[in-house]
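Can't paste images in this forum, so I'm doing it all in text. The chain is below; anyone willing to post the predicted structure tokens underneath?
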Amino acid sequence: MAAEITQEFVWQSIPPRPRDSHKGSFGAVLAVAGSGFYRGAALLAAQGALRAGAGIVTLASVEPVVSAAAVRLPECCLCPCAAGAEGGISPENIPLLRRQKATVLLLGPGLGDAAQSTARAAETEALVEGLLPGFGGAAVLDADGLNAASRLLAAGKPFPHPAGELVVTPHPGEMSRLTGLPAAEIAAHRQDIALQYARAWDAVVVLKGMHTVVAAPDGRCRINPTGNPGLARGGSGDVLAGITAALLGCHLPAFEAAVCAVWLHGAAADRAAAKRGEYGMLPQDLLPELGALFAEHHR
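Text version of the structure:
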């Protein structure tokens, strides 16, 4: 049985910010996210990255998403992208995206996929295949990015990987599509399966759900004790992806970044539930609670 993530591990892994810090000290996150169908996902992911300490966050998305971010997130840099199928990010933007200065790539939230059309799914697949292998830093692959990766694997292609470390954040349904295993089998053997595929994909696997499992290619594994059913709504995972990307930008290794992000995400959710209830809390309610957690431990 893997050890639980502890508060002590989290705050030992996240150092206080040095007094002589500047924005370049804490990484530059490029979030390639959002579409006409899923505008909020991109904003929640970008906010998660901002609240968790990233030095610079650039949101690359289509115009409706960029316009919303300009109003809601004045701290966020913006990279407007040409729209493709179903109002998603067109693969023609890949050269533009490659030119953006970033140390961490966050790819996937709200990109759109087969639920919109086969054309949208093909374009999301092209973005994943075109951006991840050419990226020089660390990356987080989430949501529709994982669905695209599952089709690449089914076609016999290797799991797309950046030059740096990779964190993947599947929920059980996405893990089933990635592995071909039934969801019931994944539920029955969460730790073993997370570890097996962490090794196979050379990635840190965050297998979400009650008691989220974080597994590393080297065999390390931790179980998360924080969180509650109030997280069971769309948008919660987008916040987690942003937090994870930010901690990678703050120079935590991928396993430590994922472990700390999962714990902080759940701890913020527990605080939000205490104030608003598990039925009434929203993913955006995690953001001020996340800030409060940092204030209590790293002023």
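Strands lie at 3-4, 28-32, 56-62, 77-81, 104-107, 138-141, 166-168, 204-207, 213-215, 221-223. The first helix runs from residue 7 to 13.
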